[in-house]
Amino acid sequence: MTPSYSKPFSRPALLSLLVLQVIGFVVLVHACQVPVFRYALERWTPDNYRVVLTPGAEGWTGEEKEALDLLTSLARSKDVPVNLTVQEGEGSSGSPGGTMELFYPGYNPGVVISPIWKGPLTKKHVRSLLDSPVRRELARRILEGQSAVWLIVESGNEESDAAAEALLKEASQYAGDKLEIPEGVVGRDEIEAGEPLPLDQENVLQSDVPLKIEFSVLRVGRDDPAEQLFLPMLLNLEDDLHEWTSEPMAFPVFGRGRVLEPLIAKGIARANVLEDLGYLCGACSCEVKDQNPGMDLLLSANWDAAIEGSEIILEKVLPPLEGTAVLMSQATVEPEGGASAAPPEEVLSESSETGQDEPVVSRAVRPLVISLIGVVVLVGLGTVFQLRRNRK
Question: Are 298 and 270 a contacting pair, CB within 8 Å?
Fold first, then answer.
């Protein structure tokens, strides 16, 4: 029997193909072009941590009441907002004095979770909870326009810590030279100059903070007394981080204090650094914060006030806490323009051996790639199905 051949595509198949092509086109056209780090700074509101205050067996003491009032007033401040919710625990702590318990954002009633830090309720702990030298320095650099800050939690082994710092600087410099701001981003000055408004308002910057590709490194010691309530926010991001206390950890911080999971020990490798920085500098393909990786840090700063003006005066957007000047002097800050030693050969084991430029892969591109692959697969399956149907 001579087989009968029909047209490759019937009208329904062509219609399905057209719809899929339109969907793919819309996904590409409407993908926000603002880099992830800048979109996070201007549009993502930090999630609230939760601190639970529980009185001692005999209730609150006079000093504890003062600490409680201080915490409550600072947590409710509109001048210097802090992403913190204060709750009073049920019953008593079972100890002679009152306690503070700090929890990550994301509270589910009825689900038992452990605090990331627990200690007595004192004014000193209240101040350390809300503010510290390292967090001030992070905010300052981000508001000056840095794309991200690599925060190294030191291992205590100076050779390992210095090698990690050198690698991060070298890889960050490479990424800074290779990465570019995605096309289509529109600055506020262009709008004010009378340029026509773009079709997608998501591509318009909302502040005058300099838009540039720039990274830096900041180190903090595990035993730094000024950071003892800040470090638990980093060291509990993953369940097994306590197993790596003798190794340096590198946390990329961006936006309004958002941090990605750390690179640890041999994981502080060139390829991993470039992948994280590529994601942060890529177009923000998914504007929903909760669908992006990372965790918000607890940080006192009026981000909205800071990004509204062209002049960034950090003292006006951070809290005037007692003792801050003393704490600031204890922060370990990388000197501006300081030279860094070449990273050890073994730490750069994942770098290119050919000497050629390596591509910087961005996590932000992955959703688009996956969507396009899905479209191709659907079109292919639909075509095969329709061809077989037409041959019957």
Answer: no
What are the tokens at 29? Answer: 């056209």
Q: Which of 151, 167, 149 is nearest to 159 (CA)?
A: 167
Measured distance CA(147)–CA(255) in Å, rounded = 8
Tell me how many domains the chain contains: 3
3-state secondary structure 207-226: CCCCCCCCEEEEEECCCCHH
Q: What is the pLDDT of residue 94?
A: 74
Angle at 241 between CA 240 and CA 246, to 5 degrees: 125
Residue recorded with tokens 């830090």: 117
Query: How far is residue 47's CA from residue 85's CA, in Å, rounded to a whole number?
Result: 10
- Rounded to whole angstroms, the Cα distance separating 326 from 51 reads 25
Residues contacting residue 231 through CB under 8 Å, at least 6 positions apart = 153, 220, 222, 224
Residues 79 and 199 grouped into a single domain: no
CB 139 within 8 A of CB 314: yes
Residue 147 has pLDDT above 80, yes or no: yes
Give the pLDDT band of residue 106 (cuts 50, 70, 90).
Answer: confident
Phi–psi pair at 367, nearest 5 degrees: -60, -40
> Among 69, 99, 130, where does a domain finish?
130
Query: How is residue 341 written in tokens?
Result: 């030693």
Question: Closest by alpha carbon to 50, among 295, 259, 298?
Answer: 298
Question: Model-level pTM?
Answer: 0.74
Q: What is the pLDDT of residue 137?
A: 97
Is 317 contained in some domain?
yes
Q: The domain containing residue 242 runs over which residues?
A: 133-361
Domain match, 208 and 300 both? yes
- Taking the CA atoms of 241, 243, 245 and 249 in sequence, report the sign of the dihedral they define: negative
Task: Please indicate, yes or no, whether residues 116 and 223 belong to a single structural domain of this protein.
Answer: no
Q: Please report whether residue 37 resides in a domain.
A: no
Residues 231 and 278 in one domain: yes
Would you call 184 exposed, middle or buried from its count of C-beta atoms within 10 A (0-12, 13-18, 19+)? middle
Dist. CA 316–CA 339, nearest whole Å = 32
> How far, in Å, CA of 28 to CA of 31, rounded?
5
- With a CB cutoff of 8 Å and minimum separation 6, the contacts of 237 are 251, 259, 261, 262, 295
